[in-house]
UniProtKB/TrEMBL annotation:
Domain DNA mismatch repair proteins mutS family residue range list: 339-524
GO MF assignments: ATP binding; ATP-dependent DNA damage sensor activity; mismatched DNA binding
Gene Ontology biological-process annotations: mismatch repair
Keyword Transmembrane: yes
Transmembrane segments: 138-156, 162-179, 246-270
Keywords associated with the record: ATP-binding, DNA-binding, Membrane, Nucleotide-binding, Transmembrane, Transmembrane helix
UniProt feature coiled coil, ranges: none
Protein name: DNA mismatch repair protein MutS
Keyword Secreted found: no
One term under GO cellular component: cytosol
Amino acid sequence: MIFNFKKKQAEQLKASFGKLKDESYNFELIEKYFRNKEHTETLQVLSDKTCKDLDFEEMFMFLDRTHSKPGQQYLYNKLRAIPNKPINVDLDEKLIHLFTDDSDFRVEVQTQLEKLKGREAYFVSSLFQEAHLEQPKWFFILRLLSFTSVLSLVLLPFNAQMFFVLIGVFIVNICFHLWNKKNLSSYSDSIPQLMVLKRVANNLLHNEEIKKINPLLSESIKILDQVRNRMLFFKLESKIEGDFQVIFWSFLELFKILFILEPLLLFGVLKRLDCRRKEIEKVFIFVGRIDVLLSIASLRKGGDCCIPKIDEENSRMKACEIYHPLIVNCVRNDIEVNDKSILLTGSNMSGKTSLIRAIGINVLTGLTMNTCFAKSMMIPRICIYSAIRISDDLMNDRSYYFEEVLTIKNMIDKSCNGKASLFLLDEIFKGTNTVERISAGKAVLSALAKNNNRVFVSTHDIELTDLLEKEYELYHFSELVSDKSVDFDYKLKEGKLKNRNAIRILEINDFPELVIKEAMALAEELDRTRL
């Protein structure tokens, strides 16, 4: 029976490699490790605003192929925190290739990680990131009550009246026992899962290649073993509740109440774990990193990816057949950025915003996962900021334009901080009138393109192409308008857009002839005025 189960599990794990996961996502718990972690040594922590612009949650669900909850949390943090230098890239790539080429070894590791796939494993990080419960000042009373219970039992054969003392203490202990239940429930998930995490890490250390990730991890595990016996109580408690062994549980409860064991053990364990936060985090990171490397191996197996060349010295960017991983059958494009930034023109739905998002996503995954969705890609080590998806903030009485102003003001501040940045903008200042939009847009885009920064911006304002041609390379998307249809090829083309089809699209959608004629006449008049 056990052999058949393991064989079936191995077959399922092999079959799932390279494929998307089929599960629900609780981002409140997935983000838990990231939100509580310090990121002082990173180049940039990706903002919530930029995450929203890049459809980060949808992208994460596509990228995530992890098998454990700590691995999932570690991957989320990895994608949100851009490192300021390469970290163990050679070792990571060696393990990724090992996972890809050796299916038996991969399944062995996956089987270990699957032990941490339950929801409870999300809470392990709280043991080293969050403050623990502190003993109340009157906690010494519990020790006295426990000692009194022991003494009463010892003296009971010699003095029958000790029975009444024992009953009195038992009744008092019930109150403290019930008071502690809420405290206990806060750790009923995390502490048992810490034991599983420790055991999984210890098993993974048996492989010499994996051990290279942290050769000294066994020392951290030994330190945690010092509180193993006390933590076994939480494992027993969790198992009993899960198996509904009511009779045994009832006797155990009476025993724990009599000697007030639960609060004594709980606060004793928490005191010891509080001194071992670094060791817990090291074990968490070790398991999480292995799971993420497996996830990257699976991602590369299932998709058309490349390992980028990261230029640490310059802000050059070159992509061959780059695509957006979330768009099915996405059209691929080539683009090269040297001394100038990129200004995109084209009609709605032609592909401008999708390309801008594809650039942002690929730079992000390239810098964090050493993986890009292209045939080949060269990217700089760079921060990422965006102004793509902006909306009114009605709760704070802010208009669309005001929200956009605040977002772009933050970009201008970041453009001068000494770090090379990638700025992604879609239809700059579209919340205001034409004259001021073009004037302000030109000034802002000129400012952002300085200081070794790179800008990808889309616009419908053809005037900006003339004003910015010395600072920006011009590209465009175009469409083919026939008698009754509009067809997009989504191919990036050099130069500015010359054909204007907006009014023609109104015409093929059966707008009144009077409206079309008036629009055509006004467009021609405006063109003459600009000339």
